[in-house]
Amino acid sequence: MKKIVKLKNNEMNEELNIEERRFGVILEDMDDKLNLIIDGHQALNKKIDNNHKEFQEFRGEVNYKFGVVFDELHLIRNELKEKVSRDEFIVLEKRVATLEKLRK
User: What is the pTM of this model?
Assistant: First the structure.
């Protein structure tokens, strides 16, 4: 009777060992997959950082160019304020014409 019990205990230990090994294999597989996810995440972080830096540089260039455009627009606006409008020009032509007639 003792032999039968010993065999059963041995079989149970073997089954436990097999189950532990299977579980270990599954854990290793999960660990490898998690490492792949972590590597992918790190690669994406690098890409995002690079894109952010490029965007900041681009934004700086655009801001500078807009500043130049606004300065030019301000100069043009001031120059236009100093010029005579068409209506004023017509009035001045009439006055000059009148003065020329009086002079003759």
Answer: 0.50
